[in-house]
Write a structure and sequence with these properties.
The structure is a single chain. With 220 residues, the protein is an alpha+beta fold. The protein has one domain: 4-Layer Sandwich (Metallo-beta-lactamase, Chain A), CATH 3.60.15. The chain has six helices and 13 strands. Strand 1 and strand 2 form a beta hairpin.
Length: 220
C-alpha cells in the first residue's frame, strides 16, 4: 500500500445518478460508506464490501437529502449497526421526509437512525491510517460537510461543488450566499491538485474549478 492509495468504489442510482461511495485503503481493511442512496446502491455496496472482505467502520453522510440517505437501513441490516456521521444541523432529516425533501415528492423516505454522531467543522475522522478534516460546506443544505485528506489530496464534497457547477440553492433551508462563502473559504483554499469527488457527476480538481467554475468566478 502506497502512501497515496485510496480505493473508491462508486455506485449510482438510476433516478438521480447519486454517487454512493465505499472508500478504503486496502482489501480486508476498514471502510467508510459515504452517502448510500436509492436502489440498487445499497445492494451493490454490500456486495462490494463482502467481495473485498472489508470491515465497515462507519456510514458518513455529506448531507441528508433523500438521495444520499435512502440506502442506510439496508446497509445496516446487512453489515451491522454502523455508526452514522452527519452534521447535527441535519439530524432531523434522517426521520423527517419534509426535511430530507422526499416528502415534497411523495416518497416519504425515513431511516431508523436515532443516534447519529456529529461532524463538526474543524473536527476530524480517522480511516485506517489516514486523517480526514471536516470542513463546513453548507449552503446547499444546512449542514453540508466535506471530508478532506491532505495526505491523499482528496476531498469528498457531497453536493456543495460539482465539475463546472455548485449545489442547488432553491431548496428549503438552502442559502446561496452561505454556500459560496464556504466554498471560497474552505475549498478554494485547498491545493490545486486536490481531487474532488462530488455527490453527482464526474471527478474534478480544486484547481480546475477555481479557474473555470462560473459560479465561483461570478456568483449566482
Amino acid at each position: 500500500m502506497t502512501s497515496a492509495s485510496l480505493h473508491i468504489h462508486i455506485t449510482n442510482d438510476p433516478v438521480y445518478a447519486e454517487n454512493g461511495m465505499t472508500v478504503y485503503r486496502r482489501a480486508g481493511g476498514p471502510c467508510w460508506i459515504i452517502d448510500p442512496g436509492l436502489p440498487p446502491q445499497a445492494r451493490k455496496i454490500i456486495r462490494h464490501v463482502r467481495e473485498q472482505s472489508l470491515a465497515p467502520a462507519a456510514i458518513v453522510l455529506t448531507h441528508a437529502h433523500a438521495d444520499h440517505i435512502a440506502g442506510i437501513d439496508e446497509v445496516r441490516a446487512a453489515l451491522g449497526e454502523l455508526p452514522v456521521y452527519l452534521a447535527k444541523e441535519e439530524w432531523r432529516a434522517l426521520t423527517d421526509p419534509m426535511e430530507n425533501l422526499s416528502g415534497l415528492m411523495g416518497a416519504g423516505i425515513v431511516t431508523q437512525v436515532h443516534d447519529p454522531l456529529d461532524l463538526p467543522h474543524g473536527g476530524s475522522l480517522v480511516l485506517d491510517d489516514t486523517t480526514w478534516a471536516i470542513l463546513d460546506t453548507s449552503g446547499h443544505s444546512p449542514g453540508g460537510r466535506t471530508l478532506y485528506c491532505r495526505e491523499l489530496s482528496i476531498a469528498f464534497v457531497g453536493d456543495a461543488l460539482f465539475a463546472g457547477s455548485v449545489g442547488r440553492v432553491d431548496f428549503p433551508h438552502s442559502d446561496g450566499d452561505r454556500l459560496l462563502r464556504n466554498l471560497h473559504a474552505n475549498l478554494m483554499t485547498l491545493p490545486d491538485d486536490t481531487r474532488v469527488l462530488s455527490g453527482h457527476g464526474p471527478e474534478t480538481t480544486i484547481g480546475r474549478e477555481r479557474a473555470t467554475n462560473p459560479y465561483l468566478l461570478y456568483g449566482f
